[in-house]
Amino acid sequence: MAELEFITKQIKQEVEELWIGLNDLKLQMNFEWSDGSLVSFTHWHPFEPNNFRDSLEDCVTIWGPEGRWNDSPCNQSLPSICKKAGQLSQGAAEEDHGCRKGWTWHSPSCYWLGEDQVTYSEARRLCTDHGSQLVTITNRFEQAFVSSLIYNWEGEYFWTALQDLNSTGSFRWLSGDEVMYTHWNRDQPGYSRGGCVALATGSAMGLWEVKNCTTFRARYICRQSLGTPVTPELPGPDPTPSLTGSCPQGWASDPKLRYCYKVFSSERLQDKKSWIQAQGACQELGAQLLSLASYEEEHFVANMLNKIFGESEPEIHEQHWFWIGLNRRDPGGGQSWRWSDGLGFSYHNFDRSRHDDDDIRGCAVLDLASLQWVAMQCETQLDWICKIPRGVDVRDPDISPQGRREWLRFQDAEYKFFEHHSTWAQAQRICTWFQAELTSVHSQAELDFLGHTLQKFSRGQEQHWWIGLHTSEGDGRFRWIDGSIINFISWAPGKPRPIGKDKKCVYMTASREDWGDQKCLTALPYICKRSNSTRETQPPDLLPAAQGGCPSGWNQFLNKCFRIQGQDPQDQVKWSEAQFSCEQQEAQLVTIANPLEQAFITASLPEVNFDLWIGLHASQRDFQWVEQEPLLYANWAPGEPSGPSPAPSGNKPTSCAVVLHSPSAHFTGRWDDRSCTEETHGFICQKGTDLSLSPSPAASPPAPGAELSYLNGTFRLLQKPLRWHDALLLCESRNASLARVPDPYTQAFLTQAARGLRTPLWIGLASEEGSRRYSWVSEEPLSFVGWQEGEPQQPGGCAYVDVDGAWRTTNCDTKLQGAVCGVSRGPARPRRINYHGSCPQGLADSAWIPFREHCYSFHMELLLGHKEALQRCQRAGGSVLSILDEMENVFVWEHLQSSEGQSRGAWLGMNFNPKGGMLVWQDNTAVNYSNWGSPGLGPSMLSHNSCYWIQSSSGLWRPGACTNITMGVVCKLPRAEERSFSPSALPENPAALVVVLMAVLLLLALLTAALILYRRRQSVERGSFEGARYSRSSSGPGEATEKNILVSDMEMNEQQD
């Protein structure tokens, strides 16, 4: 470290990066010094070495004020540092540099260890008496020197000049300077406010810890500056950003802040990132993951989040987390928290109630619900927030191999032409080095630009160049690799070839500007394209409320009316005639603007057995809707669009689109381009709603909670944070299972549900024994699939329907915000998870519902005090509700929401134990799981006079008084092999009691009648005994009759004797 400090001090301020002798030229990622000396010390920058994008980064540079190391391509031109053996000077070196006796020199200051154990204020005074101040530590070199001073001390602490003076959670040096470097011990600076900082010794040598300023006693270190240093100063930190600098477009800031901020959020799970991926995404823009130096900065970020996501009750934003730069991933950092951008960790806002010091939680998130920080596993896929200095433009990195030509600009994009030959996948990979993709083509003008440019590059007029259009293996659907819409085609005659299982990739011919398909392993030159605007995935917009209604014969969806026509073959017409027919009805051919409208159309097709014209058509190779609306969403069938691409000729449509009704489920609802003038089909008309009419009940996507029927299935939507197995268990508790998707129509119906809720939904599809082979939990065949391209890619994972309707996979322990159950009709299905025992058969309105190892009885129609609730459950042989984990809380909340009654919630069987000073359940077990609502559980509510309840509307727990409050009742008891319901737990309403009393009176009457009949029969037997040959039981004529005959004979013989 001392050698590194010396080298760093010699580097000129304007020099950013220099070569050192470390390299891995012989063996990848096996670094060695060029002089052959042993590698015993390294000082890598975070996330280095990384051999970025496999670009042969085999040589090492030193850069930054702390002399961090980075692996870089060896062909870069940089200054370098040379080293050779030196000779020791014969003269005595001046070691004290003017320091007083007992003080130790380290440029540019003198240091002294105070050995008395004193409070913080006494340490400050003692240093002042010596004309010095308590020590400040501004970089790791000073930290290393101070650690060497206290190396021989064991079990002691030494005060520094760092403190949280105003108990705000923000630490400052006594000089008032901001903290630019920190060296905290694990779980420091702790989770309470206030305190002063001391250096530890022993195994935690030199690490910083927060101590009580007034009660804790420690030794201390004084520092006295002597002015100009003898050796050069270390390079300073980066200049402080100006307050007057502007922010890039789409970034936000405050006039008092020197940085700009941007939130990256998506409802789609595959767009979220791990901590490392999020950090890389920010760095590619020239930014960093969010760091926070003060309450004021965090307050601005909180306001920014509220503007984007709205200010709501905390439960609305539950488990919406954003990565920030705080982490403890540095293996040499002693598990201490550090900001990824190097900012000193001087301000903290951890949620103390949810802090977890587990080793696997090494990264921090900002919780939208509480606006506090929470430790999280770094691999979790989440949203994130970036931060960039004012006045800095968003960076467009240029990390690439050598290229002959620079980027060529056309309209809003740039293009680079590579003449060396690569396979399609290799070409795409090289394009990504430039933050680009293989080119897409969306207009005749763009095609002409590429064609003219290719003629300058191409050695032959027939040379082929890769572009970004391709199909996926086993899919057959064409897609642009950059995710853009296929709204333009230029196929050569006879192309594309018929679809098959193999992946196909598309090339462009230099001279004719037409396209063909080829095996993707063919090596061709290629074209990369990058856009000046950043393409971002925005969360789905909130759906508009349905306004107005539709005339008879039309189907309403949101604010549009649809009508399918052509059921009679005589009504099937050409495209232009279909458009004319719609116009006669004050409508037009349908425009399908997004996946939600597509899902509605597909869900309307089960009774249709013919293809349907839609309003999409092409007249000059580019597709557009009627009224010249641009194509922003497409749903092409495999191998489409594949129609002829005639030369531009006027505006008359030549190729028009239909929605397919196909025997193959994978084609149903997809689009195909057909001849506008030669084919006849049915068609779909569309018009706006009539505001004078009332909306249809089915005008909006299905809502959570209620049962929904579609075709032969019944479904229930759940909207709450759930793991896959928890969702399965919750469905099974309602005589259902996670839903199966048997056909494209059900797929479309569930797409509407996912889009309406704006959240992915678990379905009943899971991997078999850790493989990529997926099957339904119902064990029915997987006859239809709706996988997103590249899926399933999660071994041992579980599947969900995303907001765009595509099936994707993720870890089964991921918490999604919803699920869809397929409700069973008839006998209960066999369950994936079985528990021993059963629940008692209910009497009257006291039905018992099984869930895991217990049974539950919900009575939200009753309003009882806490004491009466205890008595009622005890009479039933159970206890008032206890909730032991999050899944049980979700189960109870689900049933509270669907229960009828006036109660705000249900009592919890919880009370405060003053001896143990903690909350306990009715069986005296400790409360280890809780779900308190804001503002939490204050000390005043921890008393024997307090009772607690769960809120029906939110599932949150609330404290309150035990008297003058009435709540609903939920009783809970363990499953048992045989259990009878206690009669004392009969319902307490008068009507039920009358029914029971009448039943008892009827039973007494029957018993009286039976007794009278019995006595009459006894008298008959005594009067005519000898002739008796009848049965005295209700048995049949078999063995019992013979037995009675024998008995009668015995009686007769005895009488004769």
From TrEMBL:
Pfam family, one: Lectin_C
Signal peptide: none
Keywords for this protein: Disulfide bond, Lectin, Membrane, Transmembrane, Transmembrane helix
Membrane-traversing stretches: 991-1014
Transmembrane listed as a keyword: yes
C-type lectin domain residues: 1-83, 106-213, 256-387, 410-529, 557-679, 710-816, 851-962
GO molecular function terms attached to this record: carbohydrate binding
Alphabetical list of CDD domains matching this protein: CLECT
Region ranges (Disordered): 1026-1057
The keyword Calcium is assigned to this record: no
Alphabetical list of SUPFAM superfamilies matching this protein: C-type lectin-like (SSF56436)
InterPro entries: C-type_lectin-like, C-type_lectin-like/link_sf, C-type_lectin/snaclec_domain, C-type_lectin_CS, CTDL_fold
The protein's name in its UniProt record: C-type lectin domain-containing protein
Organism expressing this protein natively: Marmota monax (Woodchuck)
